[in-house]
Amino acid sequence: MRCKHCRGYKVAVVGATGAVGTEMIRVLEERNFPVSELKLFASSRSAGKKLGFKGEQITVCELTQNSFEGIEIALFSAGASRSKEFAPYAVSSGTVVIDNSSAFRMEKDVPLVVPEVNPQDIKWHKGIIANPNCSTIQMVVALKPLHDLAEIKRIVVITYQSVSGTGSKAMRELESQAKAYINGDKIPIEVYPHQILFNVIPEIGKFLDTGYSEEEMKMVNETKKIMGDDSIRVAATTARVPVLRAHSEAVNVEFEREITPQQAREILQKTPGVVVIDNPANHEYPLAINASRTDPVYVGRIRKDTSVEHGLDLWIVSDNLLKGAALNAVQIAEELIKEF
Ligand code: 25A
Ligand code: L14
Prior knowledge:
Dihydrodipicolinate Reductase, domain 2, 340 residues
């Protein structure tokens, strides 16, 4: 790859028309990532559609095996099956793939990276770098500095996940259910097994034989890999709520050593990428509506869990399409090009 002083990199976004892909394009522009040429790919459904980047209209092309010639960095967000099918072609063209799907996250020779937590892992990539699951990213950004101080033994997390995690079709479904309700029409149900409007659905991803869902196991396994510590125990319950953007999480953490809520607050206030909002007496705590379309991971409701020797409870909120997906992917690309 060329040096950062050169004109820029040839970048592709795969899944460019989706909920995450459109944010990837916007974040590349907003952060002024050095792009000399941007190529946009999606399925044949979107071929010919135009999307804006730095005042230019770029035509979306159908993704094929030959799409990656000359591309230096490809940001993938078109689902795990598309990643499995097309990432090998990208790698054999010499493209570095930053993949937002779950396809390669747990593979031994694929780094799983949150730049605030384990930027050093980017170095050993062999063509693919995986972007972690959105619920996991926001949790580890907040917990890593606390782990460094007091060593985490066990995490119990419950998530309240927005519909945008499922993609743009699910966002439209929540909106159309709201409209149908207002108009007194029959509520359309297509994406989720139940109505999501006015509801909470404790099912994200497939259920496994253990009774846990795929999303819950992503939080267990990815947390250990990103933190580089297999001894951290994680129990997760993941639920869908009728929110358009930003996931909220109730996180209970047990530590090896003493850590007070005030210490945690002070450390988190100094942590890059984290904003502490913790003034409950004034009704101030992180909210999905306020986190939506913003970059930080917000932490609040920091309090002592008196049921164990060294425990804290926290409320963590972040925009799942940004830090949970597009922003983290672009930050990985920024780290990657630092080496050249
Ligand atoms: O396969 P998975 O892993 O189960 O993933 C399922 C979906 O989850 C989203 C994403 O939805 C994905 O399709 N997703 C995956 N990982 C995610 C993550 N980490 C995630 N969401 C958030 N965080 P999406 O609709 O938001 O984005 C899909 C993008 O992928 C492109 N795509 C699909 N098949 C492709 C492909 N690109 C290349 N080759 C293929 N074979 C897709 O482009 C979009 O950019 P598109 O052209 O198919 O979609 C244009 C519009 O059409 C809608 N749409 C999507 N699927 C269908 C559809 N319309 C009708 N029928 C469909 N089956 C989309 O809403 C989009 O607006
Ligand atoms: O693994 O539906 O990155 O909210 C993240 C979003 C899995 C699905 C992942 C959702 C996806 C999840």
